[in-house]
């Protein structure tokens, strides 16, 4: 019999990174505010959390991240100017980010890895299960990954990670999971996790991508987790302890994702994400696709 569990309502979004791969654009602008078509990347992530039923969002920020708070706050002067012009369309777009969720912010201070960022959320989260969404991974809203992960957590308890099968030659870029099947086609039991292993040492080609639903037991585990790869406290290492020894934290499961994911942390993938999303927009797509076909045809002729 499935036990009644606390409904997840809180999301944590780590956003303290320096964005060095996008310098000089990120010298004075947070990487999370870089536009993907006409919305900053971070707004897509918050919208995903809200679509999954999460109404309380905590961002883990750092220095020079004030623009994130400003974006999800009211801009009275801009709203007044648009109202005066009668520009209802743009006014609605400006107000969208104000009303998405109840937003909270805490500074990481000394950035010591993703595990440390998650630890910074403990006073806000308390003893409830919660979601973690990494801003570099955009999940297409037509593929409700986070909602499915919450369903799995409500069924099994414990923690849930998002997994995606990747080329074995690329597994060193991710955490890699050892898995066992369950009775659900898209759900596996995670028995071990290794952060960024060499291809020959990876337990599988299933990579952990940037969505997690975590039992609050992760906090006590992370407090005892020693710095790992890169001298940082790795969330993967904490989850590995829960996967190997359930204890009070429950099991670790994985949802295998086969949908559309856009990696905005890589410059090439960031550009590809913009092209894909622009092509699919009703207001931009027809003209943009026509131009793109012509451009590609001309490039192939050169």
TrEMBL record:
The entry's keywords: Nucleotidyltransferase, Transferase
Superkingdom of the source species: Bacteria
InterPro entries: GalU_uridylyltTrfase_bac/arc (IPR005771), NTP_transferase_dom (IPR005835), Nucleotide-diphossugar_trans (IPR029044)
Catalyzed chemical reaction(s): alpha-D-glucose 1-phosphate + UTP + H(+) = UDP-alpha-D-glucose + diphosphate
Gene3D superfamilies according to UniProt: Spore Coat Polysaccharide Biosynthesis Protein SpsA, Chain A (3.90.550.10)
Recorded GO MF terms: UTP:glucose-1-phosphate uridylyltransferase activity
Domain (Nucleotidyl transferase): residue spans on this chain: 10-274
BP term (GO), one: UDP-alpha-D-glucose metabolic process
Protein EC: 2.7.7.9
Top-tier EC class: transferase
Family the UniProt entry places it in: Belongs to the UDPGP type 2 family.
Database matches in PANTHER family: UTP--GLUCOSE-1-PHOSPHATE URIDYLYLTRANSFERASE
Protein name: UTP--glucose-1-phosphate uridylyltransferase
Source species: Actinacidiphila oryziradicis
Lineage per the UniProt record: Bacteria, Bacillati, Actinomycetota, Actinomycetes, Kitasatosporales
Gene for this chain: galU
